[in-house]
Amino acid sequence: MRKILAAALGAAFLASPAFADYPERAITMVVPFSAGGPTDTVTRLVAESMSKELGQQIVVDNVGGAGGTLGAGRVAKAEPDGYTLLLHHIGMATSDTLYRKLAYKTLESFDYVGLVTDVPMVIVASPKFEPNDLKGLIDYVKANKDKVTYANAGIGAASHLCGMLFMSAINTPLTTVPYKGTGPALTDLMGGQVDFMCDQTTNTTNQIKEKKIKAYATTTAQPLAALPGVPTAGEAGLPDFTVGIWHGIYAPKGTPKPALDKLTAALQKALQDPNVVARFASLGTVPVTNEEATPAALEKKLKEEVARWKPVIQQAGQFAD
């Protein structure tokens, strides 16, 4: 019934000359994480620029909880009229395996606007933590695995995913300390309450530059200009350890194509905005190309990443109800 109603609504919009004026009111863009985190930062930068292009404000609504699935579920159930969007990261793909029950179908409940950015990650530690380089970190955690603590921002968070890959890469399980968001995890990391973590450059670059935390390596193939002197994991002794936290914008399934087309065009314009480009650069990332900021590219990326992460998560055996 929902699909029939969505199709009827889309047909009505297509037939209405008034739809040429879309959007005629504010648009809500849901971030499925708490305010102040890396995905929230990306969203607010992009939303502000897209608002200028669309001529209507995009209001950012933080709907955190359950590794991003609560916010995604809210958008999946929203009216497919172009006025409710979701900006989510790689967790959109991993939650398909991490969670035994979801209130939506990852590959069936959404339409696509486009990719936004692929944010690098960096392995960081408390200033009080003994190891000073990545090789020293690996040797230390292997020798002290029962007392070393790895912080993450909760199941499904970027830091959780990177941690699973790291433990798999060094074949050493560690004590993980989950937090309700990146902010409190970083606060305890800076204070020495936990030892180390791996998180997005959008949330760690400033703290690294201010020497509030120490950096061991980035998860990129090439060094980052925003973090001079920080080697890649491959350079530092952990070959093939690369992971990026990509972000995309979604709409409820059945959103009329004219709305999606306008949103994609506004996204592409926003990603060329000099202010957005400069702010992204200061955070260690870059906007995707116009070819990637499309519905087809995002759909392809999501399908590939669901397939990529499923065996990793199943091997780690870390699931949520």
UniProtKB/TrEMBL annotation:
Keywords, comma-separated and alphabetical: Signal
Entry keyword Chloroplast: no
Annotated signal peptide: 1-20
Gene3D superfamilies registered for this protein in UniProt: Bordetella uptake gene, domain 1 (3.40.190.150), Periplasmic binding protein-like II (3.40.190.10)
Superkingdom of origin organism: Bacteria
Similarity section: Belongs to the UPF0065 (bug) family.
Protein name as annotated: Tripartite tricarboxylate transporter substrate binding protein BugD
Naturally occurring in which organism (per UniProt): Terrihabitans rhizophilus
